[in-house]
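Progress report, Aim 2. The chain analyzed during this reporting quarter is listed below.
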Amino acid sequence: MYTTGDKVPDLLGQDQDGKEIRLSDFPDKKIALYFYPKDSTSGCTAQACNLRDNYQNLIAAGYQVIGVSVDSPESHKKFIAKNDLPFPLITDQDHKLVTEFGVWGEKSMYGRKYMGTFRTTFIIGPDRKIERIITPKEVKTKDHATQILS
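Predicted structure tokens for the chain:
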């Protein structure tokens, strides 16, 4: 589990098209690496669309947005196409990233317990060190870009 100040490995994973995503692909950028539970659910769609709608502001401020969920590449492709998302989504079906970052665990809904991803955003500096973590209790799906920029 990573915490503020930790250095993150360069290779993050593969995106929806099978392309490797590396932090070194975005030199001099801060990375907003956001983990979300599931493609095409209401909260995850609101969050992705808020980031999409504010994408140019994020880019202008020196950020690259990268999403991560345990969904399949096909699910990511549909989610991107349906919502016109301009940033990559990493497919983490083997749960490697969600485990490394400590965002995979037991959740509960309507009394039913299940394993899932905790909605969390890591702000990673150009030096690959985690500068800030926006925790599940802090994430505002409909205003997430503002949280990243503040």
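The longest strand covers residues 63-69. The domain at 11-149 is CATH 3.40.30.10 (Glutaredoxin). These observations will guide the mutagenesis work planned for the next reporting period.
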